[in-house]
Amino acid sequence: MKILLLSAFSFVLSFNAFSASSFFDIDTDNISYTGSWSAPERTALQTLLLQLESEGQAQLSNIEPGDYLKNSANATIMAGKSVGSDYANNPDLFLVGAAVGIGISTEGQSLTDVTDSNEDIEDIVNGIGAQVSLLGGVNLGRLPFVPKKIAFFDMNRFHLFVNFFKYDIEKNDFSADALSLGFMLRYQVLESRAFFPFSMLYWEGLHVHLGMQKGNLDLEVNETLTLTESDSTSVPGLTMTGTFNSIAGAKVEVDTLSIPLEISSAIRFLYLMTLYGGLGADLNTGTGSGQGSLSNSTVTVSTNLSKSASTTASASLGEEQKVDSFFSRAFVGLQFNLWKIKLGIQYDKALGDDLYGLGAHLKFVW
Predict the structure, then answer these.
(1) Residue 45 and residue 27: Cα distance in Å, rounded?
(2) Among 5, 184, 232, 284, which is 20 to 30 Å from 136 by CA?
(3) Which ranges of the chain does DSSP label H, i.e. alpha helix?
(4) 342 CB-contact burial (10 Å; exposed 0-12 / middle 13-18 / buried 19+)
């Protein structure tokens, strides 16, 4: 049996704990009969329904839940690392832009292994998250109400970045609700420095970043499920076919909060491109939870004789998992500079874990 929900989102049903002995149950005690059924025929019918139930459980059990919800929550945190700050620019006044990030958790394989593998992606990826956001930044030293210097800190070295985006999608039997929100305070510890004539090689200095990033992602999907089982039965001359039909509904909610501390630096080449990189450590909190159920579930049994039967089936699934409270990471990015317009890509990798982030941004810097 093919779980059609997986074709919409491979992880939607992966929240099932499978600790219950019978999470998918066909009611064999309240069967409606059409026609005359003998005792042996009813026994054969019971056997067919149990086979249908076992097949359904076996197929559902092929979805390995593991730590999918936790990994998806971790991936949502990683997706936010490329949308809430800036590592390649020192705006004199302000910065505005947009960014998108994707987080991926894999089963002990690198991203190269994932792209080169002949395996199905759902067999390799055991967690995924995404964030999209608008970003704004300002040089705090240029604000008229901010002193030029506070204690030992030159306020022209401080930049504040704020990101926010919320979107809702509803299409047929699928809906998604996502939120990305955060701020990052950045301080330039070491000043920028130009090399060679006309600043053809320019070091952007050394920066320290501290902030907060929040990511929410709610998904809901409904799909039709069908399962068929046939049996010639132990009753001579009787063949039966059982068909299960249902609407399967699944809902996944990911809610995360991360406090990153980062150090970064960047080098600009010939004004055209900037290479940047850094290290980060994140304190995290949040959960990934899932719920699932069957509705309008019917099981019909047809025979080669003038008789039939029907009954119902039910299922109720659910689990919640927490994010990793801490992870460290490294990141690197490349930005193309087209006057004040900046186009860039970023790659993040958790240290000691199979957790990756990919991001892209478009910014206007003044």
Answers:
(1) 12
(2) 284
(3) 5-8, 39-61, 68-79, 111-116
(4) buried
Buried b (16+ CB within 10 A) or exposed e, 17-49: eeeeeebbbbeeeebeeeeebeeebeebbeebb
Q: Which of 11-15, 288-292, 299-303 has the lowest mean pLDDT?
A: 11-15
Cα–Cα distance for residue pair 97/342, rounded to 1 Å: 9
Share the mean pLDDT of the chain. 86
CA distances from 274 to 88, 186, 240, 271 (A): 6, 18, 69, 8
| Bridge partners (DSSP) listed for residue 346 | 333, 359
Longest dimension (CA), the chain: 98
Q: Residue 117: pLDDT band by 50, 70, 90 thresholds?
A: low
On the question of pLDDT at 348 being above 50, the answer is yes
In 3D, which of 108, 97, 112, 1 has the Cα closest to residue 57?
Answer: 1
Contact 214, 256 (CB under 8 A): yes
Is residue 1 packed enough to be buried (19+ CB in 10 Å), middle (13-18) or exposed (0-12)?
A: middle
198: burial class by Cβ within 10 Å (0-12, 13-18, 19+)? exposed
The Cα–Cα gap between 252 and 177 comes to 11
Question: Is residue 145 scored above 90 in pLDDT?
Answer: yes
Alpha-carbon distance of 22 to 79, in angstroms, equals 36
Higher pLDDT, 4 or 135: 135
What is the domain extent for residue 31?
5-365
Please state, in angstroms and rounded to a whole number, the distance separating the CA atoms of residues 352 and 319.
Answer: 26
Contacts of 328 (CB under 8 A, 6+ apart): 279, 280, 281, 282, 350, 351, 352
Q: Are 158 and 149 in contact (CB under 8 A)?
A: no
The Cα 356–Cα 124 span in angstroms is: 13
Backbone angles phi, psi at 114, to 5 degrees: -65, -45
- Tell me if 69 sits within 8 A of 76, measured CB to CB: no
Instruction: Work out the pLDDT band at 2, boundaries 50, 70, 90.
Output: very low
At residue 236, the 3 state secondary structure works out as coil
